[in-house]
Amino acid sequence: MRILHTSDWHLGRSFHRIGLLDAQREFVGHLVRTARDERVDVVLVAGDVYDRAVPPLAAVELFDEALHRLAELGVPTVMISGNHDSPRRLGVGAGLIERAGVHLRTDPAGCGTPVVLADAHGDVAFYGLPYLEPALVRDALGADRAGHAAVLGAAMDRVRADLAGRPAGTRSVVLAHAFVAGGAPSDSERDITVGGVAAVGPEIFDGVDYAALGHLHGCQTINERVRYSGSPLAYSFSEAAHRKTMWLIDLGADGTVAAERVDCPVPRPLARIRGRLDDLLADPALAAHEDAWVEATLTDPVRPQDPMARLAKRFPHVVSLVLDPEGAPEDSFASYAQRLRGRSDQEIAEDFVAHVRGGRGPDEAERVVLTAALDSVRLDETLGETAR
């Protein structure tokens, strides 16, 4: 069976205040053409269809267009909700939409109920595991504690139990939206850390032939059977080196996996440049970036006059300016964002405690309190988005 694995569309998102709806529409067209030209049997979308729980109307219209085009193509599609989506909103009309071959899986209670498709070699069961917010789904899934590994493990237990009752030789695919150990994050993913633990091990997907993951925006292979497709577009300069692709997966009769990357359209390349302003304006080696979206880090000891205006004369698509003056103290305000990059909420909070105490960080009891407070805030945000 030939599978096209994608995720993290983030419809409605912008890039440094630049609207990306046209680029997202171009991607949808590319997805449909690829499914047709490559004779794909099923399209998978592993969460974060939208960028926020209440998306703008234009994003909803584009999603509607995507559903219609996929349905007209006659290729079944399986989608799950991600941590940016509102499961209830995304899942509205799922029963009716399913009649057109588009299967929306947004309810955690349905983790063990697959979409079953067949090819010449028999059945393939597709299990949709939407993003599982531990505090919200722990009881429903019967998990022994509120953590990502616990709730995802409980969901996978349901998958394996259902699979065990199916005919021998039934192949299986899981869609999941999670942070799996071994994956490389970028700056544009929302933190889903719970209890200070950000990642789950890939062994949690043991027993299935392929795990189609969403959440991390870089296309990457955790192992041969566990992969992230990544986002089809770059949503932060931390993705400047990413090659944006989808996975074209051939699932063999015996469950073997053959994978190929299919490039996505690039609306405009990204470039990160660094140096003194006069040097950046004169360096001939930077000519290749004159048509790119540019993030410029200026190292001038003193802030130059009108830096953005001067940069824009050579780099008309410069959208981000970072000041990192040479010789500045390491803890200067200019480097604040860099110092926070890649750190979890828990680590940032613990560092703050150490800072205000002159270097003495939280003890174990205080760390537990911080963890509980952060989890409570995250849960409140999730409930608030669901209620809106």
UniProtKB/TrEMBL annotation:
Gene Ontology terms, MF aspect: 3'-5' exonuclease activity; endonuclease activity
Family, per entry: Belongs to the SbcD family.
Nuclease SbcCD subunit D C-terminal domain boundaries: 267-355
Subunit structure: Heterodimer of SbcC and SbcD.
PANTHER family membership: COMPONENT OF ATP-DEPENDENT DSDNA EXONUCLEASE, NUCLEASE SBCCD SUBUNIT D
InterPro entries hit by this protein: Calcineurin-like_PHP, DNA_Repair-Maintenance_Comp, Metallo-depent_PP-like, Mre11_N, SbcD, SbcD_C
Annotated ranges, domain Calcineurin-like phosphoesterase: 1-89
UniProt keywords, alphabetically: DNA recombination, DNA replication, Endonuclease, Exonuclease, Hydrolase, Nuclease
Stated name of the protein: Nuclease SbcCD subunit D
Primary role: SbcCD cleaves DNA hairpin structures. These structures can inhibit DNA replication and are intermediates in certain DNA recombination reactions. The complex acts as a 3'->5' double strand exonuclease that can open hairpins. It also has a 5' single-strand endonuclease activity.
Example GO BP: DNA recombination
